[in-house]
Amino acid sequence: MKRKHQPDCECASVMSEEQYALVFKTYRVGEFDEIYVPKKEAVHLTSLRELKYLRDFKHNNIITISDTFNNGGCTHLVMEYMDYNLESMIKNKDLSLSHIKFFMHQILLALDYLQSKRVLHRDIKPRNILVNKGGVLKLSGFWLARKRESTNHQFSPAATTLWYRAPELLYGARHYNTTVDIWSFGCIVGEFCTKNPLFPGNSEIDQLEKIFTIRGSPNNQTWPNCRLYPGYLEPTYNAGVSLHLVLPNTPIDLISIADAALQINPDSRPSAFQLMSFEFLRNVPVASEYSDPPIFQKDDTAYPSNSDY
Fold first, then answer.
1. Which candidate in 83, 112, 123, 181 is catalytic?
2. CA separation (Å) from 112 to 103, 129, 196, 270?
3. How far is Cα of residue 160 from the mean position of the Cα atoms in its chain?
4. Cα–Cα distance measured from residue 103 to residue 136, given in angstroms and rounded to the nearest whole number
5. What would the pLDDT profile of 135-167 be if each residue is shown by its tens digit?
6. Residue 20 or 272, more confident
7. Residue 273 — pLDDT band, cuts 50, 70, 90?
8. Which of 14, 121, 166, 168 could pair with 180 in a Cys bridge, judged by C-beta atoms 3.0 to 4.6 Å apart?
9. How many DSSP H helices and E strands does the chain contain?
10. Residues 177-215, buried b or exposed e (16+ Cβ, 10 A)?
11. Do residue 127 and residue 219 come from a single domain?
């Protein structure tokens, strides 16, 4: 139920600053929450759009709204409290292959659900993936989400944080689909393996160069229609390198998932459902069966990163 006034809660701390909102950790009797407060300079529609989607979504791996209220002419979203974001976990925790498998599977479950709804998240990145101390992972940050109503539906290419942006978006594509989220997932897989972003570009052109340095520049065989994009620029030829060299000491069956998700041709990327059938992700335990040594200590405190990409 939407409230007209702020719920009875105390602000414990500012957790992070996002592009469209400040995130506060709050406390009310018996539980913690997160309140997303839209920035005044941001378009108010982003908050309303996120509210619309999150009210409709019912999935264990997507963040839920517990309350909303109006304050200062803006809609504030009260969401369940999560202890960590994946960015801070990758940087500060020693994740085993079992942890990586467990988290990857949950991300794909969320993406598969969105794909079944024809919804593009358009900003998949570690900071928008939240984890509690029980290891349950939830996708958040739906400010840029859009529903693809038809194959002719056009979207802005200015979506997704640069380091996780698919090549077709960097070429100015306006007709695209949920495979842009699969590309972002592939970038996160690489980050799981190296603890560093896979393609840390500082501009759209530099981002493309970093992608092609590893994945190879497009040609008529690997990406036949790439020249049709409005922002296409003929790249310098680059054969690319094997992901085995980019992700050293990584199991082959894990590399195969990254390789599939990071196809430069969007038509060659598998769906989230298809990725879950890969060898690395078979026999993934459910949370109640999860027996890997814990990565959380009782006195752990979550410190979400405020750095910008």
1. 123
2. 14, 15, 26, 11
3. 9
4. 8
5. 999 999 898 999 998 778 889 998 899 999 999
6. 272
7. very high
8. 166
9. 9, 11
10. bbbbbbbbbbbbbbbbbeeebbbebeebeebbbbbbbbb
11. yes
CB atoms closer than 10 angstroms to residue 172: 14
CA angle 143, 147, 151 (to 5 degrees): 140
Domain CATH code at residue 118: 1.10.510.10
- Cβ atoms 120, 155 nearer than 8 A: yes
Q: Scanning the structure block, which residue is given the tokens 């029980």?
A: 134
> Among this protein's residues, is 67 annotated catalytic?
no
Strand-pair partners of 25: 13, 34
184: which 2 tokens? 């972002």
249 domain-assigned: yes
Among 54, 154, 25, 167, residue whose Cα is nearest residue 114: 54
Q: What pLDDT digit, counting tens, does each position of 166-185 carry?
A: 999 999 999 999 999 999 99
What is the number of domains present in the chain? Answer: 2
Supply the pTM of this predicted model.
0.83
Instruction: Dihedral sign for Cα 57, 154, 174, 20, please.
Output: negative
